[in-house]
């Protein structure tokens, strides 16, 4: 029995040395091969950000702050045109996926979920079922209402500006008459 334990101990030590050696080799390989590639990628991303993205983002934010109504309108149009970009990733982020999901786990913990509830609609939408059409319809409806509100606001502002100009012109004409 002592010989067996001694052999087992020796085998474990040899296995540990082999594992340590392999780990050391992988670590050296990673440092020599992978780290420079990651540094090159990081440098390239940094270059792209500072030369292109930063200036575009600052111009986009400046435009959005100067023309808030137009920016919101463009966002709503984008949501309506590219709905699949918004809803499906959002559902996946919330855990509502086609396969086994966090939502299914939550439902198993919660118990019965009433049909037609928001949870049931999201789960159906995550499985690309009829709930997806419902969710897409709700999303498009909200975006369309916001777009309508923005358009109405812009029309009202434009009319108010036109009336101010007319008042200013009529006042100039009255001043000329006197």
UniProtKB/TrEMBL annotation:
Highest taxon above the source species:
Eukaryota
Name the InterPro entries for this protein: IFI6/IFI27-like_sf (IPR038213)
Q: Which UniProt keywords apply?
A: Membrane, Transmembrane, Transmembrane helix
- Give me the segments passing through the membrane: 68-86, 98-122, 134-156
What is the official name of this protein in its record? Answer: Uncharacterized protein
């Amino acid at each position: 029995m002592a010989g067996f334990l001694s052999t087992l101990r020796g085998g474990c030590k040899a296995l540990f040395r082999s594992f340590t050696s392999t780990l050391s080799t992988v670590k050296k390989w990673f440092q020599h091969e992978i780290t420079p590639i990651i540094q090159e990628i990081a440098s390239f991303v940094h270059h792209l950000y500072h030369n292109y993205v930063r200036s575009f983002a600052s111009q986009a934010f400046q435009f959005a702050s100067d023309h808030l109504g137009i920016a919101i309108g463009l966002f709503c149009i984008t949501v309506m045109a590219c709905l699949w970009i918004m809803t499906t990733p959002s559902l996946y982020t919330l855990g509502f996926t086609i396969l086994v999901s966090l939502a299914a786990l939550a439902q198993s913990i919660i118990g019965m979920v009433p049909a037609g509830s928001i949870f049931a609609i999201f789960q159906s939408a995550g499985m690309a079922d009829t709930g997806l059409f419902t969710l897409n319809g709700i999303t498009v409806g909200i975006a369309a209402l916001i777009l309508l509100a923005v358009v109405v606001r812009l029309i009202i502002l434009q009319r108010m500006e036109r009336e101010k100009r007319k008042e200013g012109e009529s006042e100039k004409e009255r001043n000329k008459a006197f």
